[in-house]
Amino acid sequence: MSYTDLLVKIINIQKSKPLKFSLIMKEKQYKLNDVIMSKKNTVVSKKTVRGGAYISDKFVYQLKATVFEPGIATMLSGTMLGPNFDFDVLEIRVENMGNDYGKISLLTNLVNTLQKQSMTELTMNIIDIKQLTNF
């Protein structure tokens, strides 16, 4: 199954049954809440290198989620482009997909965070997807 086909399957399954999403960082697992996955148009008209740092296409699959973990924004600040010259890749694990799909790992780039009193909202671009045999 192709990258795009699998992402579309996840989006469709998520509409009909709850999936479990977790951020894996520094060998710890953080539960993601209120996860929304969608396909977004970008401002470019063709695939291009942006700022010499990353490749942008005409669209991107994006994941938005909330984390209720104190201090996670500080840990995540080192993963975003801006304070750093490169994006770090963050892994999001998806469970409850069903036996046909196994376990899924989404590889993402963090593009925005919004810290509120008791939670942090994350916006990530999905750059790759893997079906895992174990985790």
CATH class wording: Mainly Beta
Beta-strand percent range:
over 45%
SSE ordering: HEEEEEHEEE
Strand order of the largest sheet: 1-2-5-8-7-6
- How many domain modules? 1
Rounded to the nearest angstrom, the radius of gyration is 15 Å
Number of alpha- plus pi-helical segments = 2
* Principal-axis shape: globular
Low-confidence blocks of residues: none
Helix residue percentage? 10-25%
Identify the CATH architecture: Roll
The main pleated sheet reads as: 6 strands, antiparallel, barrel
Work out the number of β strands.
8
Short synopsis of the structure:
The protein has one domain (3-42, 58-132): Roll (Pnp Oxidase, Chain A), CATH 2.30.110.
Report what the structure shows:
The protein has 135 residues and is mainly beta. It has a single domain (3-42, 58-132), classed as Pnp Oxidase, Chain A (Roll). Helix content is 14%, strand content 50%. The protein is built from 2 helices and 8 strands. The strands form 2 sheets. A 6-stranded antiparallel β-barrel has the order 1-2-5-8-7-6. The longest helix has 14 residues, at 3-16. The mean pLDDT is 80.
